[in-house]
TrEMBL record:
Residues 231-447 form the Metalloprotease TldD/E C-terminal domain. PANTHER family: METALLOPROTEASE PMBA. GO terms for biological process: proteolysis. Residues 124-224 form the Metalloprotease TldD/E central domain. Pfam families: PmbA_TldD_1st, PmbA_TldD_2nd, PmbA_TldD_3rd. It comes from Tardibacter chloracetimidivorans. This is Modulator protein.
Amino acid sequence: MLSVPEALDRLNTALAAARQAGADAADAVYVGDLSTGVQVRLGALEDVGSSEGEEIGVRLFFGTRSASVSTSDLGPDALIASVERAAAMARETPEDPYAGLAPEDMLLRAAPHDLELDDGGVATPETLKEMALAAEAAARAVPGVTNSEGGSASIGRATVAIATSHGFEGGYSGTSYGTSASVIAGSGNGMQRDYAYRQARHLADLEAAESIGRRAGERAVRRLNPVKLKSGAMPIVFDPRVGAGLLGHLIGAITGSAIARKTSFLLDARGGQVFGKGITIRDDPHRPRGLRSKPFDGEGLPTAPLAIIDDGVLTGWLLDSASARQLGERPTGHASRGVSGPPGAGATNLYMEAGDLTPKELMAGIGQGLYVTELIGHGVNPVTGDYSRGASGFLIENGELGPAVAEITIAGNLKDMFLNLTPASDLEFRRAVDVPTIRVDGMTVAGA
């Protein structure tokens, strides 16, 4: 895998070829990654895998015509040949009045922030094996666990570099470590499975493997002997590991492409009360050691922390340059891209700020409700906001968690769900998208 200076050197070779081919503008991106993972099952090594890959993507503009190509052969001759193919393609593509590089006056010019994305460490397969074995052993030691789907541990390192014909050059590298366990409790038709997983940029920040495994085992056992639940309207409480998905639906609805295509249930909501007062949702690309932290976006624009929802009000859209032009606005530094095709827009380290109530206080007063720990399917309409998902979790009775519940459906509309949402105080930064425990009143449950 290339270092950032080496990657930028190759990208400049591609840009020089683009100028030689007559392109009016061009950009190039390098993505390299390597990873090692170990899988164990029932206390024995099952698999050791290692992968390494790197690609360069080049995008050329001839006026408002453009084309993209990518190659895993990073030699100068291969890069020049790829650029020549892109040039031939671009001349034949339809014109797009919104295509083009990011505005030159908005490019990142200052030195990138030190986001502590790379701890410089190297975890050997033997170390990873010990971590995976420890996670699985802790999960299997939980009384009631009867079988295992395995434990795993991994290390990865990735490098991203971008260069443009109008003056931007930048790159960064980052490490990532992960540990997981998945086990089965019970027997026969009454078996239940669950898992636990953690990921971190620095090995020193990764939760202990034993803790991860123990949580997986306890979750699986807790799901045994599910009861039936009658259909009806009731409060739904989302566990943080599934509640984060609600923010995913929010982001999908406020990206520039969805707004420009008019395919968003929040099309007319900018500046309006989308969540209840007191709710704040932030995107923080500068969080040190954040899983999606980055100093610049996929077009070379500076990133910056942003309150997407401020006191319940939607502050604006997330725009790449093309969607910004289409909407007559300026890009917001949220472009994301790979080596193929144009950039899109998306969030980085996204989170909902904590509320004032503990999870127990949040459930107090619920005579009958549902605590959801798993969601199934993709029943969300991005145009209307209609929401219907298969779910499992636990019954809430008189403010207390009761027996497990499975094979149910929860439904509502995201507009109503957002307005009737209350966050608890238990926010933890563990994922790329983090939320506390969330209560949503007025949803419908279809049970037995």
